[in-house]
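@channel sequence for tomorrow's demo:
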Amino acid sequence: MTNDHPADLSQRTGAGNEHVDRAAAVTSSREHGMSSMRAHADRLERENELMARKVDTLDERVASLRARNEVLSSRVEALRERLSHSASRANDIREARDKLRDSNETLREQLRETKSSLRTEILSGRERMLEERARRNERAEKLLATNSVLREALRDRGERAAAQQEKNREVIATLRDRTADLNTLWRNSRRFFTVFRQGLLFDEIEKLDVDFSADTYLSLLPSTVPAAMTLQRRHGGRVICDCVENVEVERHSLAPNIHPTALQMVNLMAYGALSQVDGMMTVSSAVAETLERFGPPVRLQPNYRWYEEAVPSGRLRARVGLPEAARVLVTTGNIVNGFEAIVDAIAGLPEDVHLVAFARFSPSGYADRVREHVIRSGMEHRVHLLSFVPYDELAGMLADADAGIITLDPENPNHSVSLPNRVFDFTTAGLPFLAPPLREIKRYIDEHGCGIAISDVTAESWRAGIATLLDGLPRYREAMIEARRRVTWNSLEDGLVEFLGNPTSVTLLGFRDLSRYQRFLRVTDTLTSRGISVKAIFFSENPQPLKNRNAEFYHFTDRYGRSEKPQRVPYAE
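structure tokens (generated this afternoon):
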């Protein structure tokens, strides 16, 4: 430790205190300065904030001014475009004005020329008018003179006309008497008109210069046998009659409405013809039994179709607007009575069961009654009445259905012995069917197990039969497919050709349109396929073109014997 002098110590202490005071003063001064600086900094910060707000405001105003400037620029540009367009239009208007000015000047010139031309023509026309007036006056004078002569001639003609009129009255009175006699004669003779038609083809054949000679003449029904015998007398050969229905005409489905004596005469002609032929063919065993009494041999030649596995066309339900789930029954052919009971049967079955009829109702009065019954029964949505389907399309259309119905009347003599085409149409389509109690059809059903034959034709029997058929459909369809393999026209061909005498040529004759008669078309195909020459002669105003180019078909265009000669049926293209 240093030992200091008290005086030095006191001096040093005072100096230290002075130094402390100065330091305190400096500190105080610094604090006052810092406080001032802080106050100044606060003012600067506030001023900076104020300036920032002003800058933001100025930025906003600048942005607004820029936006306005862009809008004004856009308007200026639009105004420039409008000014440019207006200038262009002004130029166009000036050009149009100049053209109009030129056109007006041209028109003025043309008007001046036209005016001058019209003046010239008017003057010329006045002169012509005066000349024409003079000519007319001269002509009028001549006509007055001629009229006087004509009046005198008319007076003479009137007197002659009066005399002629009196003569005409006498002639008319005579004609009326003769017409009355002819009417009386027609009333008596028209009862025998069928006999007259029976002789038509016979008479036409007598006048023919076409060579219809053949080894065999195949006549459709006894009515054409006399014509076939005419050819037989000329050229030799055999005559075969195809009897596809009862011989007695009053037993036909649509028996002719003629005098009983005329019916008996037609029958007697048929009896005589059938006793003279070399053989007869027919469609069912029942008809064959009725033909045996005439003596010549009889061949059973059912209306089988060519073998065909029909493919469903897919158009049946679409044609009548039915859903795929609908159960569809179908019937075909000519229907003459009994259809109302089937309509009532359908009404008693579930709503999904429908009936489609590709049928012709005869006579026309019966067709009207059927339509009225369908409407009265409220069955228009389930019973669909349609026209016939073309034969080539029939099997495919039938194959779309679930089952068929044969609508025949057991009380009809012709139906009672029939085995109709529709049986074999259903067979080709593989379609099981329901039928009334007809001997030939029931025999077919029993033999093949392909359907049901009901006991009577009441609505209840039809309804029960349809229900049973639909319930057992798979079994019946399988049986029908088996029948389709066995029941074919192909299986009958050898026997047919042998029965016709193994000919080298055959001539077909008929009152029906043979170009549309499927049975004779099948016969034609069978014969020509074996090199046998085939010709046909028949009545038809509008035959169907022939598909078989190895045959020759001829037709008379008039059914009353007024045509001059037969015409050749053209071939189908």
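heads up for whoever presents: The chain has a mean pLDDT of 86.
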